[in-house]
Amino acid sequence: MPHPQLDRFQVRMASLTTRTNKKHIEHDHVSPDDPCPELSDSAQCLLADTVQRIQNARAADRPVVAAFGAHAIKNGLGPVFLRLIEQGWFTHLATNGAGVIHDWEFAWQGQSCEHVGPMVNEGKFGNWQETGFNINLALNIGAFEGRGYGESVGAMIENEGLDIPAATDLEDLIRCQTSFDPHQVAAAADLLGIIKTFRLGAGRLEIPHPWKRYSVQAGAFRQGVPFTSHPMIGHDIIYNHPMNHCAALGRTAQRDFLTYAQSISRLDGGVYLSIGSAVMSPMIFEKSLSMSQNLAIQDGGHMDGHYILVSDLAKSTWDWSQGEPPENDPAYYLRYNKSFSRMGGTMRYLEADNRDLLLNLVHQLGEPAP
């Protein structure tokens, strides 16, 4: 007998426009033309080496992948990321589900970041109609269209709307294509269920995004640069909304993981930046590198020329170039450094605020990539 489940249709959703937010993108964003923050001598030396490696990687047409936690978006760094992808320095961006949500909320209403404690106490945290409805609908449609997670949301922001297929067209596809393309049929059936449950009409659904100029997802979609999202079920506020359908999310997230893994497979001679991500970035990297190394070995090669810069606010006194610390050293439990130190190539750690790191990078890289 199945266990009882909470009915999300009974959760009262409120309009996002009624929420008090801590961040307002027009006032809190970081411009790539802002003055360059000072770094310590050791940090500046490490950053100079990283800049040179990024320049060498792009000159050799190797990838520069930037994976980051949601705080990079919350801190208003969208315009800096946009400059770095527009100039060709970053070839792939990766974040978690929260990064997608903050980027979308900034683009849609120019504000994000609710007060979690008070909202949980009032039973309101995450229960926002527009965030849950629009992002989940974009993912449901994106799964049917063959898009990734970040690409689905980026396309909605950039195009300022979604195209909802007719239920009758989906029913025809399901009847005719089952023997030929069962995966597409499954995605069509999932979307058909959403359309019928929420009584969505076919055609264009206009969703204006007045602040989309700050959206990294929209900019990446516009530039054709992969923006991949790597969520975990139940971690993000969009799971509170009854439109949330994890089969669709799984399809888009799987596509993003394999797109990310493809970039990692080309990382020999490239650069990987892990910025403020304690769990997502190291976990997806180690699996992707293992698969990539497997393929390289099958071809008679080995991936050893990759460079990894890990940056976060936590202090680390251990010299990671010497390998892992012993288990009785607290540094051993700085999980992301330990994980990346096992990944071969060259790994370095920079203690820095993500705003300081990215502003220094955009200033020192300067002109567009070759």
What do you see in this structure?
- The chain has 370 residues and is α/β, with parallel strands linked by helices.
- It has a single domain (30-165, 202-365), classed as 3-Layer(aba) Sandwich (Rossmann fold), CATH 3.40.50.
- 48% of the residues lie in helices and 12% in strands.
- It has 15 helices and 10 strands.
- A 6-stranded parallel sheet has the order 7-3-2-8-9-10, sandwiched between helices. Strands 1-4 form a two-stranded antiparallel sheet.
- The chain is globular, with a radius of gyration of 21 Å.
- The termini are far apart.
Task: Sum up the structure in keywords.
alpha/beta, 10 strands, 6-stranded parallel sheet
Helix and strand topology:
Layout: E1 21-24, H1 25-28, H2 41-59, E2 64-68, H3 71-74, H4 78-86, E3 92-95, H5 97-109, E4 111-114, H6 116-121, H7 129-145, H8 149-159, E5 161-164, H9 167-177, H10 182-197, E6 203-206, H11 216-223, E7 227-229, H12 246-265, E8 271-275, H13 280-298, E9 307-312, H14 335-341, E10 346-351, H15 354-365
Parallel strand pairs: 2-3, 2-8, 3-7, 8-9, 9-10
Antiparallel strand pairs: 1-4, 5-6
Helix pairs in contact: 2-15, 4-11, 5-8, 7-8, 7-10, 7-12, 8-11, 9-10, 12-13, 13-14
Q: Write the CATH homologous superfamily.
A: putative lor/sdh protein like domains
**Secondary-structure element pattern, one letter each:** EHHEHHEHEHHHEHHEHEHEHEHEH
Q: Span from first to last CA?
A: 62 Å
Q: What's the CATH first level? A: Alpha Beta
Low-pLDDT segments, ≥5 res? none
Class per helix and strand makeup:
alpha/beta
